[in-house]
Predict the 3D structure of the following.
Amino acid sequence: MKRQVKWEGVYPAVTTKFTASGDLDVPTYLKNIEAQIQAGVDGIIIGGSLGESSTITHEERLELLNATLDCSNGRVDVILNIAEGSTRNAISLARKAQDLGAHGLMLLPPMMYKPTDYETADYFKTIASNTDLPIVIYNNPVDYKIEITIPMFEEFTKYDNLQAVKESTRDISNVTRMRNRFGDRFKILCGVDTLAMEELLMGADGWIAGLVDAFPAETVAIYRLVKVGRIEEALKIYRWFLPILELDINPQLVQNIKLAEVMTGLGTEHVRAPRQILQGAERERVIGILEHGLANRPTLPDYLNL
């Protein structure tokens, strides 16, 4: 029986771990995956922008998918990200992911080309027509210069497997705009760490998070406390977290978060070129933010039993 993805809760966009020589480091990757699951996340998203999507091959994505499915053993949703410039290539990867047992897909708009609204909508609809997997659409016009508009979502209502949106427009009112137009037809997951609590309070269903890779317990605690109405407790953690969360809205977010993973014992700094690890004054700035956060890390309530 096909797994029903809920699109609710915390979904880490996990980093891809590499060895010093640039190969996949699956053991370290799985150490982080297990830490995420133990902290109470609801799903794992593989090969997103934070996962250095532009530098990993289809074969490597599928290797990570297999490893994650084996490690998680049904405990969480396992979602593969697709970021392609060709509709044909996107369909090919979607079919391979489905054959291997992925529970769902995240789809970015077409890469390396500024499509029209018609082309963008057709891209999503064509992929949806060629897989049975449930899909979350990544709407990030700030970084990708392509907005998935309300009229496009109107078209997507005809496709049962187009089910959710990663809301990264930076416009919190878009949560209400989507709710007013579509009710609960599309699940809404905040995709911007620094707006997560605000969007959850406005009715977002979940959080596709970045700094969760280094701070899984704090991220899940905020989500669960908000959802049971314990706002003051969530706000205290969120205010502590915000200077660290701001490391996610930065061109070097991958390097920032991998450095945070090192400092919390959940990863390594190795990245693939053209990325390089942080250097000089910027490295010291990020270390200072993380050291201050770690020195003042809050005591969490028993959030797992909420």
In short: The CA atoms of residues 214 and 264 lie 6 Å apart. Residues 9-238 form a domain with the TIM Barrel fold (CATH 3.20.20.70). The longest strand covers residues 77-82.
